[in-house]
Amino acid sequence: MKIGAPKEVYEGEARVAMTPDSALQLQKLGYDCAIETGAGAGAGFSDDAYQAAGVEIIKTPAALWKSADIVVKVRQPNETELKRLREGQTLISFFNPAANTEGMESAKAKGANVIAMEMVPRISRAQKMDALSSMANIAGYRAVIEAGNNFGRFFTGQITAAGKVPPAKVLVVGAGVAGLAAIGTSTSLGAITYAFDVRPEVAEQVESMGAQFVFLDFEEEQQDGAATGGYASVSSPEFHAAQMAKFRELAPEMDIVITTALIPNREAPELWTPDMVASMKPGSVIVDLAAEKGGNCKLTVADQKIVTDNGVTIIGYTDFPSRMAAQASTLYATNIRHMMTDLTPGKDGQIVHNMEDDVIRGATVTFGGEITFPPPPPKIKAIAAKPKEKVKELTPTEKRAQEVAAFKAQTKQQVTLLVVGAVLLLAVGSIAPASFMQHFIVFVLSVFVGFQVIWNVSHSLHTPLMAVTNAISSIIILGALMQIGSGSFLVIVLASLSVFMAGINIFGGFLVTRRMLAMFQKS
After folding, report:
1. Is 133 a residue of the active site?
2. 455 to each of 291, 340, 430, 451, 458, how far by Cα in Å?
3. Scanning 98, 160, 263, 434, which has its CA 20 to 30 A from the CA of 65?
4. Residue 294 to residue 292: CA distance in whole angstroms
5. What are the tens digits of pLDDT across the range 247-265?
6. Is the overall model pTM greater than 0.90, yes or no?
């Protein structure tokens, strides 16, 4: 079967659904690859690069759609492209099925099978095909770069001969994939980064990336985002009011605000109001990643950059991934390739559209002349994080009682061990000669002292400590060497074994110690 990638017809779209590298991988699955002339030029992939990878170059889009059994695209197909579908053909693309009933009806009428990349379920096994996350990651990164391009000062703080420069303060609203990418980029550039999200489980992720999570003094049971595929749920009016109050408090302090909040199949919620914009400092920047769905700031104009009367720049571009076309195409083409791997279990160049597979079924919107959207919930759901149980703080009296109880238990255990040891020692002494008991008592005491010392050592130090003590304690080799010249054959054998084992102890101990020390030395 042949996989074809047409040139994107959406105005300004520079991405492409197949790269030379992904074409090589698709060919290993048994497919022939084709691409329309100039389809990869916007992303920096020339026709020569495709030809070198064994990809057929087709001059016109009509010829490509006609010859390809599988068509891979980035943007939602337009009316002309839908008319080119034919029975049994497979289309893999962003499709927006929730708002594209006409497109699904057209594909159904043509008998084509459509896989919508944004419908890939958010389960662990499908992460390699999650094109939404791939593109959101790029959008979050690019949002910070665009903000920096329009921000008139440094991100990081500096102390120079000309004076001290304070670091920029960045607020990221929404800590999904795009938000986390923006947080990582902002902190790496040296800005003081704050982040807010309605999902409480993301606080640890935010803080692990060096940002400060903005907490609300508000008690509300929020559904774990993992239970709904990683998306935020709709908040109560009371929670929203508390959220707005917090943003109004933060607005005058922030230099850059990046909003990423979206709820699937809904208009973007308004989170940054005109009065918040009015309270921001001149020169501040707002990057609205939800501009395509109406924007989190209602002053945002889709696909434009505007400057308000008080000097705040609001960026409403909707093509952030396309502005990094080479990287975006590489990631998206990899997502497509992984989807094709699942669709080709035999690696024989033949699609097996297994509707029992959670990932394939979830992403399929039309199949066999039927509309299959919306899909049933996946059999394997994302595991929601369990709420942390609050540890009850003990009062001083309870802490004291706990310490006394622990001390008594430890004392009882030690006394019991000493009594049992003393009884056993007396029992051995009643039948053993005095010369033996002198050595035996020294041995028992050394074992007891050694155990007490080692027991109180941190576990992380056990290996180096034991290595050194083994090497030092192997002084017993001297006793074995003194006995090796004995006239008794049995004594010689035992002495030889003692020398051998003690030698292993010595050399092994120092070798382990040397390797441990080498771990902390620069090469």
Report:
1. yes
2. 62, 56, 31, 6, 8
3. 98
4. 6
5. 999 999 999 999 999 887 7
6. no
